[in-house]
Structures are given as structure tokens and as C-alpha cells.
Amino acid sequence: MAVRPAKRPRSVPAPCDQRGEDDYLPGNIVEIEIHNFMTYDHLVCKPGPRLNLVIGPNGSGKSSLVCAIALGLAGEPQLLGRASSIGAFVKRGEECGYIKISLRGFTTEEKIMIMRKINTSNKSEWTLNGIIVPKRDVIEIIQKFNIQVNNLTQFLPQDRVCEFAKLTPIQLLEETEKAVGDPELPVQHHTLICKRKELKDLELSVAKNNETLNQLKTLNAQQEKDVERVRQRKKILTEVVENMKKKLPWLKYDLKKVSYKKVQKQEAEAKRMLEEAAKTMNELMKPIEKHKEEKVAQESAVKKVNDQITKNSHRRMEFIDIESRMGIQVRGKYQEVEDLRRQDRSRQQRILKAKEELAAAEKDLVDLPRYEPPKEELEKLGSQILELEMNANQIKLQRTEKGNLLHQKNLSLKKCLDRLKEMNNEKSKLLQTLKNSGVDKIFEAYNWLQVNRHELKREVYGPVLSEVKVSNGVHATYLENHVPFYIWKSFVTQDSFDRDLLVNNLKKYDVPILNYVGGRGLNKSQFHITHEMNVLGISSRLDQVFTAPDAVKDVLISQAALDHSYIGTRETDKRADEVSRLGINDLWTPESHYRWSVSRYGGHVSAIMEPVHSARLFVRNVDVSDVESLRSRKNELEATIIGIEESLKIVQVEQRQLEDEAAKLHRQREEIINAVNLAKKKRRELESIVDQRKRKLESLSKEEDLESSVKKLVDLAFQLDGKRCELSNEIKASLVEAIALRQSFTEKHMTCIELDAKIREMEVAIKQHEKIAIQAASHLEICKEETERCKHELYVAKQHAESVVIITDDLVREFEKMPGTVEELEAAIQDGISEANSILFLNQNILEEYESRQNKIVSLETKLKADEEQVKECVSDINTLRDQWLPTLRNLVVKINATFSCNFREMAIAGEICLDEHGMDYDRYGILIKVKFRLTGQLQALSSHHQSGGERSVSTILYLVSLQDITNCPFRVVDEINQGMDPINERKMFQQLVRAASQENTPQCFLLTPKLLPDLQYSDACSILNIMNGPWIEKSAEGKKEVFYSIIHVSFFQPSFILHADVCLWQLGVAVNAGER
Fold first, then answer.
1. Cα torsion angle, 899, 905, 907, 912, sign
2. What is the sign, positive or negative, of the torsion defined by CA atoms of 127, 133, 138, 141?
3. In the chain, which residues have pLDDT < 50?
4. Strand order in the sheet with 926-932
5. For the purposes of burial, counting CB atoms within 10 Å of the CB of 35, is it exposed (0-12), middle (13-18) or buried (19 or more)?
6. What is the distance between the alpha carbons of residues 650 and 1018, in angstroms, rounded to a whole number?
7. Gyration radius of the chain over CA positions
8. Coil, strand or helix at 492
9. SUPFAM superfamilies annotated for this entry (predicted)?
10. Is the peptide bond before 463 cis (omega within 30 degrees of 0)?
11. Phi/psi of residue 870, each to 5°?
12. Backbone angles phi, psi at 940, to 5 degrees
């Protein structure tokens, strides 16, 4: 199996002949520039090519320089142990900053400038030689020079020194392989570990499969006798019973075939009988058909005569009807003559009566007085009504205008009240404040929560700012400055389901979600104000000055440590230096915010004082003057509305009075008009009566003479009688024709009856033969159905027999030896089954189990062969890889041990480096550091149980020094490794560092320390970077520049070094003078 290739590219070693005239190796840091980074405003630093001693008091910014190197070379914030996000490294109060690191290329002229721009939004932008590039391009450059900022043997920041001391031998070996030696070593080591694990798995699998195989073989051996009996039983059932069962369906098929042939003969006989019956029927049907044709001809003649009789009868009835109508007309004419004679006697009386009625009506019309309408009174009433309606319209218009004005005032009042309500809504104000502070979608997030509360399992609070109530404005300022802004805009959940729901749905609104789980891990400090605190003016604590739901309050306390921050007065401000003695590390006063911290090394206390910034979130955004203005406007609108409503009521009363007066005048005018119309109507009615009576009189005068009318009526009667005589003759002729037709109809109808009787007699005879034919046809159908059924059964039997077995010559000969009938064959089969059943065994599935185990045995044997081959192959790969890796590693450890032992001997103590081998367990291989700091005793492995902190520091730095001459990394960083050493060990350690830095093949080294011992020995390889900062540096820099020069000249004797140290000192001292500290 091939060895897995390396995961990272092979780095280019930095041999000593690659040093140029500038004494730098490829990958060395030649310049560091940082801006708005941690405590620095701006810094430009040019380290030396070998040992760089970075010196400065605690808190001056040495470790900030280490952080800049790590982050500038693509390191993650987590490896520094300070913060989890890149935005936390931007200087407080600034929005963005940058780190620029220049590396020496493979030639003296080549410089590689890497810049990382960072901002408080945790975003980074990378540039390579001024060109914006992705981070992977920067990582490729860094890997080319084998720079590993995550390797503790190369890069040991202050916050990870203790982590390096805690490295196990196994971890130390991994870090050493990455830092020095062949880059293939860690890859080969990892491959060996994986191969060994794979080999163990294979060996375990082989052993397990061998055990399983033996168990299966044992079980099969135990069951062989039972299996043999099962096979014997199976043979009886297969060879004897099964062959008989094969013949049985063919015997049944033969029986079905005989039955089929028998029903075929029956069907043929039934068909012959049906044909004979049909022939007899045809012979009997011929005379019947002839008689039926004659009958149809006679019926047609009878129908024709009957139609003629019907037509004659219809014509005769028409003549009779016409004659009857004419007789009625004649009698009517004679009746009219009698009526005319009676009317002539009463006409004179009617004319006289009509004249009398006309005279009476004319007299009534003349006697009726003429009614003249009162025009003046009507005109007066009309003008009064018009005037009242005009006044009412004007008042109605005024009422409409006042109604519109009242509506407008009500709308204005509603807007004013809504605005006041909105100003008085505290939650809306706080949400608006958050929106003004940059949380643009806080209203959308809050509204989403209100709409979807039914989906939540427990109560959700937020944003936090809206849940907190602070009664004191000064305390609100303290609280806002103390708590990070992200908490104020956060929502607090109490259930993991609610948290996930809000995270998924509120992500687009850019609001954080904090999950509170029942006070888990929360250890609140008890609130107690001592007498000493009261004397200094300390009155309260930040966790006591506000109210909020328990979950929100616990989140604020746990996230912002409110239970450790106290509140003082101006008196406390004056005596702030006494506060730290009471164990208080955080204090708020009206003017300042104090924080005290204790050094982990010297134990001295340092303080930070910051001004108190004005509150932005808890400030009341509503202007009081605006509120008062709105309230006065509300009162003014309410008074105006009351006045308008009063005037509107008055106008309504006036309008109602005018409308009542107008209605009264309208009624008077209607009464006058009705009287005029009544008089006119009475005159028109009398005139109509007179006219009607005149027309009646004229009508009576115009009637004809009686004699002429009687003559006309008698003439008409004579004419009608003549026509009646003609119709009587027509009726007589029709009666004669009807009698002749009726006689012919009777003769033809009797002939039809005779033919019908003959046909019925012949049909009775045919029905007897038809019944015989039907019986023959029914019998034929039954035979056909029986034939089809037998045919289908024969087909099914054949299909079944063929599905059991196909007949062959050998099978026929074998069948001939067996019984020939179904009953005998079934009895033989039952005998065979009984014989097989007499062979008893307990497990019915023993044969299947035996064969299944046999298949498993074959499969396992095949797999065992494959696994054994794979084991051999894996062992071969491990041996090949081990022969490459282990000798190289041993040589590397020997080299490290030689240097390490030499360095320890020079410090009058003893130490050695050895490889802790564990045979084939490559994951347990490690590097043991064994040291002895006393003359008595033996070498012991480095640990916190046997050595002190200073002794571990000496051992760690000497181990790192031992790596320098064989390392292939361009630089190494060690932060405050000499802290905790006694002066003797520190001095010896320093001499070792200087000696190692003076060698030709040594990499660039950064040693950060807050102090150096006096009278140390330095060489040309040393460069000192002195970090000084504080509020007085800028003012005193010029005055003390000469003093700095003199100190440097006294301490160091190499002119080139003095010049370099002076430049670095001046650059760093001035660059940080504007820092926060």
C-alpha cells in the first residue's frame, strides 16, 4: 500500500548561505507596522535578524506585538487565548485598524508585505504587496517559509506559556516534528498511527473470524448424523413419492380426456335431432303463409270499405249540422221581428224621458255658481314659503360647514392623542432608540416575536433594553456604559427549542439570541455594604439599581459581572486610591469609571480610569416642550370642539323652527288649491252629464222605421229555408251510399274471419312440432356447455400435468411400472409419505441450518484469506514507513539531546532528551525531557510534581534553544518565559540564548520580558526593542533622549547594536504615547 502524501507543501529550508548582506534569512520579519491595534495608535518596528529582546513594563504592550505577529500571519484569535473574535483586537473607540508585516524573500531585494485590515464587525481584508487577495494566498506564502504560528515550539505567546508546560510527551513530539526536521516526519508519524490502528482492527477481525469459523465447523460436525437422516427422508420423498405425484396429474388428464370425447358424441346427436325438427317445421309453415297472405289482402279491402263508410258518415253529419244551424237562424229572424214590434211601442216613452233628464241637467249646470280662486292669497303664501326655504337653506349650509369643521377638529384631536400615547409608550421609545443606535430592523424582530409567541414553549424576553427599568438616571448611565451593546439588543430565551427557532427566523434582522438555562453556573455575590464602603461613599452595586425579569437579570449579571461593580459618589472619586484595598475591582462615580487588576507575576495592582460617557439608550428621547405643546393643543381642540357642538345645536333648533313654519304655510296653500280643484271637478262632472244626455236623445231620434226592418228579416228567413231543402236532398243520397258500403264491408269481413280460423287451426299443429324443436335446441345448448366445460377441464388438467413434469420416453417407461389407476397411485403415494414420516428428528430446519452454516464457513474462509493478505500488506507498509521515520526521528532526538545536554551542563545542572518508544504503538511515542537541578538524585521527567515553576521555565527555554540550530522555521517567538526564574538560572538561560543566536544557522528569535538582569553579556546578534508608554512620554521624550543614549552606550559596547537599539527605542517610545494606557 502506498504511503499517503504529505498534507502540507514541503517547506524550503533556510540555509546559512541564503543570508544576504542584511544578515536576514528568507521568511524573517524585517518590519512590523500596526495601526489602531489593541493599545497602540500607530507603531512601526524593524526587528533584527537574530535575537530580539522586547523589553517593557507589564501592561505596556509587549504581548500586543506578539498578537500582531500571530494575527498578521493568518493566525486565528483563539490560539492567543485572549479573545474569540478579531474585532476585539481593534483599539477601543476605533472602528478599524490594520497589521502590516514585511517578510524577507529568497533574495535580499525581495520583500513580501502582508497586510490584514480588521474592524469591529469581525471582518478581515488581506493584501499581498498592496494587492487584495483571499486568505488562502497568504497562507500559501506563510507555508512556503514553514511559518507555524499555531505550533508552540515556534510561537509561544504569554497566555499559552502554561499550556506549553502542560504538553504531554506525545504532544511535545508532535509539535517538535512540525517545527524541526523533515516536513515528512509528522505525516509519516500520522500515517504510522493510522496504519497501526488499521492493523489492530484487521488482527482483531481475523481472530474473531477464526473463532467464529471454528464454532461453525464444530456445530456442523455435531449435526452430520441428523443431516444424513434428513437427506435419507428427503430421498424417499423425492425419488419415490415425487415421481408418483408426477404421474397422478397425467392419470387425471387421461380421465378428463375420456369424458371429453363422450360429451362430444352427445353434442353431435343433439345437433342431428334439432335439424330434423327444423325441417318438419319448415314443411308445416308453407300453407300457413299462403292463408296469411290472403287474409292480409281481405283485411286491406275491409279497411278500404270501412274508410269509405267513415268518410260518408262524416259528410252526412256535416250536412245535418249545417241544416240544423240554418233552422236556428230562421227561428231567430222570426224572433227578431217580434222584438222589433215590442220595441217600437216603448221608443216614444224613452225619448220623452231623455228630454226631461237633459233639461234637469242643464238647469243644475246653470244654477252652479262660478268659483274664483284667491290668487293674491296664493301668491302671498308662495313668497312666504320661498323666503322660509331660503333661510332654511342658509342655516343648513352653516350647519354643514360647522359639521365639517367639527370633523376636522375631531381628527386633529385624535392625531394629537395618538401622538401623546406614542410619546408615552416607553417600549416604543426604547425600540426607536435601538433603531437610532444602528439596529435597523429591531421593530421587525420585535413584531415577529409578538406574532409568533404561540409557537414558543416558554416566555421569551427582549430586546433586553425594553425589559430593564432604572429609576435613577445616573445609575442608568453607569449600567449602559458597563453592559456591552450587543446584550441590549439581544432576545433572551429559556428553552433550546425557542433559541433555535429565534436564531433561524431572526438571523436576517441581525439581533443576537441568548439562552438562559435556570441559573446554571451562575454564582452571584451577596450584596453587602460594609462600614468602610459607606465611609468612602459607596452606596450600591450595579445589580441592585434596576429591575427586570429574573431570566433577563441573571443574563445581565452573568454576561457583564454586574455583581462585582460598585457605585460611588464624588467623595469616592476623591478617595479612589483607597477603594482597591476593600477588594473592589470595578467602581463607577459621577465623573469616572475605575478598574483595578492584579499582576499575575509581581502581584502589584494597576488601575485604569476612564471618563463616564453620557447615556444614549436610556435617555428620554421625547422633548418635554413637545409634550407640553401637544397637551395644550389637545386642550385647545377640546374647547373648540365643545363650542362648535353648542353652536351646532343652536343652528339645528333654528333650522327646525323654519322648517315647521314652512310646513304650516304649505298646508294652508294645499287647502286653498284643493277647494279650487273640487269646484272645477263638480262643474266638469255636470257638463259631462249634459253632454251624455244630449247624445242619448240624438241616438233615439235616429232609429229606423219598424216596417222596413220586419221586411228585411222575413226575406232572410225565406232564403235560409231554400238552402235547408237542398241540404235535405244531399243527406238522402248519402244515406243510400252508406247502406251499399255497409253490405260490402260485411261480406269481406266474414271472409277474413274464415281465413283467420283456418290459420289458427294450422298454428296449433305447428306449436306441437315447435315445442319438440325447442326441446331439441335446449338439449343441444346443454351439450355444448358440457363439451366446453370438459374441454376447459381437459386444458387445465393438461396445463397442470405439464407444469408438474413434461412427458419423456424415460418417464413413460417409469410410469408404466407404477399403478395404473388414480386410487391405486394415491394409495402408493400415501405409503411412501408414511415411510418417510417414520424417520424422526427433533429440529425440522436442521438441513437448512447446516447448509447455511456451511455457506458461512466458505465465506469466512474466503474473507480470512483476504484479511491475512491485507495484514501482511499492512505489516509490510508499516515496516517500510517505520524504517523511513524512526531512524530519522532518532537522529533528530539525538541532535536535540546533544545540544540540550550541553546547555544544561553549562548551567551546572544535568538534562537529557530521549525518545519514549513503545514498539508498534506509534500513537504512544513521545519526547521525554529529563532534568536534574541538584547534585544528588537522578534525572526525572519534567513535570509540575517534581520541578518548580522556575525550573520548568528554564527547561522549556533550553529545549526551545536546542531546537534553533536544526529548525527550518524563519523565526521563533517566546513571551515572558524567564518569569519565575531565579537570577542565576535566568542569567545562564540568557547566555544560552545569546550563544544560540550567534550561530550561523540560527533563526530569528523574539524574546519578550518585562526586565533583564544587569551586567548581562550581549553579542552583535542581539537587538533590544524597548517599549515605553504613558501620558508623559511625549513631553519628556526630547529631554531624556540623551539620557537614553548614555544608558545604551554604558550597557552595550557594539556601535552597530547601539545605533539599532536607539532607533527602535525612539520609534516605539513615541509611537505609543497616545495609547489608552
1. positive
2. negative
3. 1-17, 521, 621-624, 1035-1037, 1039-1077
4. 910-916, 926-932, 940-941
5. middle
6. 110
7. 66
8. strand
9. P-loop containing nucleoside triphosphate hydrolases
10. yes
11. -65, -35
12. -130, 150
